[in-house]
Amino acid sequence: MSEPEDQDGQVGRRAVLKSGAAFAAAVATLASMPGGAMAATGKKPHILYILADDVGWQDLGFRGSDIRTPNIDRLASGGRLLDEFYSQPMCTPTRAAIMTGRYPLRYGLQMGVIPSGAGYGLATDEQTLPQVLKEAGYKTAIVGKWHLGHGDKAYWPKQRGFDYAYGPLIGEIDHFKHSSHGVRDWFRDNEPLVEEGYDTDLFGQDAIRLISGHNKATPLFLYLAFTAPHTPYQAPDAWMARYAHIADPSRRAYAAQISAMDDQIGKVIAALEKSGMRDDTLIIFHSDNGGTRSKMFAGEAAVGGDLPPNNGPFRDGKGTLYEGGVRVGAVVNWPGKVQPGKAEGLFHVVDMLPTLAAVAGASADGGKPLDGVNVWPAIAGKTISPRKDVVLNVELTQGSVRDGDWKLVWLTTLPGALQLFNLAKDPGETTDLATANPDKVKALQARVVELATAMQPPLFAMEALRATLANPPVFGGQPAAGHGEH
């Protein structure tokens, strides 16, 4: 299980909305800026979107870590660094935001993750990124973790715009057994699959197979969503041996997971080069949220000992709206098209759909109004990001927005728990400036209230009474293959 499915008081917090003590109406939709690389080059690029799972901010080589990530480091040194790039605080909301270009509060996926016993998923009337790209002539594939619905096949990736799908549908799995709570969670397209091997290696091998057999004349969108380094912390002995100097076993396995992922990323890039596709491939890399610092959000595999992720200068981690939970940074690399260096301004994961649509010469106008904006000119190094604010999340228990350098964190279950930070001066969120700036607090609080009034009820809270560990996962309305295995 990725995160606790029934945290203490979770269901009771539904009363926060009903009582009017929590927030209130929706944001005006941000308009997509026109234009992109497609217009400039006349050629649709291949797109490799690499998503890591729960990587700590400081746990990459190019950020000074002792964890070795030479392949990601090369992407960073030759690409664009989006250091003020934000995700959602947990994996399901972030993945939903990538797929839709819309804040998850619009369709009820803003709170928690989709638990193993749940029947809900990403609303089928939401347009997805692969659907947008397919209409522009792309071949689309997901290799890796989905976590946007498994209880009904209508939610599965093959039904949401992907021509090909391989990997798990839920969240946390045993990286060798490919099972969650004793139930196998491993599929190719819509069929259960039994395979041996370490999941990170299998993802890399499958991505290489796809690239090697792909006709490069057809643009490819490959969403490579690793399960590393999510709990349980597991890695092959050969990778563990490389970190024998790390005394803490959890940190040793965590580091090995990241390096094993980096190794597969390098092999996938080599496959692009061998196939003559690399110069025409736009690569994006980031984590789905910050590293896990609290056992509340670590899943049942994290028992005892300190949690190993390092979020560097940022406060707290996964599951929270502090910078350690939502500021993940991103690397964008495309030889000759993306100017190396640091991009200026704010970015949010919802920006990826309109940005990639613009780059691909696709239309993103066929669905509901987007929250994302086209930030391609800033990524390419030609201008500053047009984004002036970001909605970090709004749900029953907490809400946060950033406006310029100012950030409000509102913990709704604690009376008076309004915190205000100036991130330009205090990126670690150590000094609460709420008392000294009541007008700014009032303005940002009103923004959160406005959003909450119009948000969809969180499906996680509605499902919490029904989804418990006692209920085995059900895939597509059928009992899961391998139920009872351990």
Summarize the topology.
Layout: H1 14-18, H2 37-41, E1 46-52, H3 70-77, E2 80-82, E3 85-86, H4 91-100, H5 129-135, E4 139-144, E5 164-167, E6 179-180, E7 183-184, E8 187-188, E9 191-192, H6 199-212, E10 220-225, H7 237-241, H8 249-274, E11 281-287, H9 323-326, E12 330-333, E13 341-342, E14 347-348, H10 352-360, H11 376-380, E15 389-394, E16 398-403, E17 406-411, E18 418-422, H12 438-454, H13 459-463, E19 474-475, E20 478-479
Parallel strand pairs: 1-10, 1-11, 2-13, 3-14, 4-5, 4-10
Antiparallel strand pairs: 2-12, 5-8, 6-7, 8-9, 11-12, 15-16, 16-17, 17-18, 19-20
User: What percent of the residues sit in helical stretches (DSSP H or I)?
Assistant: 10-25%
Cα-to-Cα separation, first versus last residue: 14 Å
Order of strands across the main sheet: 9-8-5-4-10-1-11-12-2-13
Unreliable residue runs: 1-35, 300-305, 481-486
CATH-derived architecture: 3-Layer(aba) Sandwich
Structural class: alpha/beta
Number of helices: 13
Please tally the β strands and state the result. 20
Describe the structure.
GO terms for molecular function: metal ion binding; sulfuric ester hydrolase activity. This is Arylsulfatase. Residues 45-361 form the Sulfatase N-terminal domain. It comes from Sandaracinobacter neustonicus. Residues 1-39 form the signal peptide. The longest helix has 26 residues, at 249-274. Helix 6 (199-212) runs parallel beside helix 8 (249-274). The chain is of the alpha/beta class and 486 residues long. The protein has helices at residues 14-18, 37-41, 70-77, 91-100, 129-135, 199-212, 237-241, 249-274, 323-326, 352-360, 376-380, 438-454, 459-463, and strands at residues 46-52, 80-82, 85-86, 139-144, 164-167, 179-180, 183-184, 187-188, 191-192, 220-225, 281-287, 330-333, 341-342, 347-348, 389-394, 398-403, 406-411, 418-422, 474-475, 478-479. It has 13 helices and 20 strands. It has a single domain (30-387), classed as Alkaline Phosphatase, subunit A. The strands form five sheets. Strands 9-8-5-4-10-1-11-12-2-13 form a ten-stranded mixed sheet, sandwiched between helices. Strands 15-16-17-18 form a four-stranded antiparallel sheet, covered by helices on one side. 25% of the residues lie in helices and 16% in strands.
